[in-house]
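Sanity check record (used in CI):
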Amino acid sequence: MNPHFVLVHGAGHGGWCWFKLLNLLHSAAYHATALDLTGAGVDPTKLEEVTSIHHHAQPLMDFIEALPQQQKVILVGHSFGGLIISLAMEAFPHRILVALFVTAYMPHFLSPPATLVQRFFKSLSPENLLDCQFLFGDDPEMPSSVVFGHNFTTQKLYDDCSNEDLELGNLLMRPFKMFFEDLKKESILTEVKFGSVDRVFVVCEGDEVMNSEFQRSMIQEFPPKAVKCINGGGHMVMLSKPTQLFQHLIEIGESFNSTNECDHQAFNSCPQLN
Ligand SMILES: *[C@@H]1O[C@H](CO)[C@@H](O)[C@H](O)[C@H]1NC(C)=O
Ligand SMILES: *[C@@H]1O[C@H](CO)[C@@H](O)[C@H](O)[C@H]1NC(C)=O
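Expected output for (S)-hydroxynitrile lyase:
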């Protein structure tokens, strides 16, 4: 049975941001689904009603659980979606053929994911955050929720996208929570479950939100099976370079579908990493 691609959006976004990639996958007769997480996209739950990161991730868990047992899944997580697919890897390690982190948080089971998020926030200079709005809860260091500002969206998040995609983003993006308290918990991700699933990282060069040094630091700390690269697409690579991302997805899907482990080494596409 062909694997099912499940596309998981990042913070502020929804299933809608994958519309170009979905069209490419469906046109090539692949099974593919883009989900709205709880409180995101057109999901009717209000942000203040989203109680935990597990509540936020529930649509992904429900989706995987409802698939036939023999149906394998290729998880694709973008940005904050990397943390969400990690929770699904922990919950269903045997159902996942491979997990793709597309300029995404790729946590390690050795430390709580919050460590990674915190390091990311510390690496950002305030000038880069422009007009983003942050709300703080109990922790004065880490925001509890965020609204992307118009200038930030234009100059950082969507700077490599067409004007139409920028307009779409401005119409559809929603405020989001960081779930920092949940991400602080020890053993939210374990070596035996989460750690057993094959991972691939797609590095996005020129990303102004999660810069490529940060992406590379995660790769060095917890090397995935393979690394792919996309140049000049910025952060919203599914909108700016959908065809390149599609080609990487298909190659990865085919390589991991075959049982030949040796294949995996053959397709690293990041010269900087060799
Ligand atoms: C947004 O950008 C405009 C144009 O560059 C600038 O005038 C304005 O002060 C910026 N707003 C914020 C909140 O940074
Ligand atoms: C994956 O493997 C299955 C079973 O061997 C096969 O039917 C299917 O065509 C393969 N799909 C791809 C994308 O290679």
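The first helix runs from residue 19 to 27. If this sentence no longer matches the regenerated tokens, the check is flagged for review.
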